[in-house]
């Protein structure tokens, strides 16, 4: 992600081909691309600009763990848990789940999960506190730009808007929620098209570490159970 941040600074979308780690990138028309969402690299841009391409990407994961601990504590308090219970819940969420593992292992596939998680937790904190749907939409958009499956969180907030429609402006809330999400999805589609000539191609099926034609994904299909 730090290498991609450096490429963004240079107005490029591909990685420099020298000394790339094994896996986690694709080779397409003699250029190398990261197939994860670009949000972690976007967050790293100011640090890479100031400190260089070797700035450790795992700093994002550690920051996400700290932010998750604080956010879960605040969210628990808002849901009427005692300070002691809130502290325990924060502790269990960060240190008692797989989040702790993915937050401490410097693998790109894990970094993107830690980053996506904090955006989703912050969106829930916003919903149960100030409930500003534009802010919620921005947080879901950022989560989806980290890991595309996290756009699915939008459904939860749509259902909540419908459920509480008697107390809020239904149309206005839906518009504020969806504008950032649609904008993010549109940018990602353009991002994919610029790299792979297809708005739907994220590069996952081109992973250089699984190009062996005997690999199960090729035998059974990438969407096969």
Structure report:
The structure is a single chain. This protein is 62% helix and 4% strand. The protein has 225 residues and is mostly helical. Strand 1 and strand 2 form a beta hairpin. The model has no long low-confidence stretch (mean pLDDT 91).
List the defining traits of the structure above.
225 residues, mainly alpha, two-stranded antiparallel ribbon, 4% strand, globular
Q: What is the gist of this entry?
A:
The protein has ten helices and two strands, in the order αββααααααααα.
Characterize the main sheet: 2 strands, antiparallel
Measured as a percent range, the helix fraction is 55-70%
Strands of the widest sheet, in order across it, are: 1-2
What is the 3D shape? globular
Q: What topology emerges from the helices and strands here?
A:
Elements: H1 2-9, E1 25-28, E2 31-34, H2 39-51, H3 58-78, H4 83-95, H5 98-104, H6 108-127, H7 133-146, H8 153-163, H9 170-196, H10 216-220
Antiparallel strand pairs: 1-2
Helix pairs in contact: 1-2, 3-4, 3-5, 3-6, 6-7, 7-9, 8-9
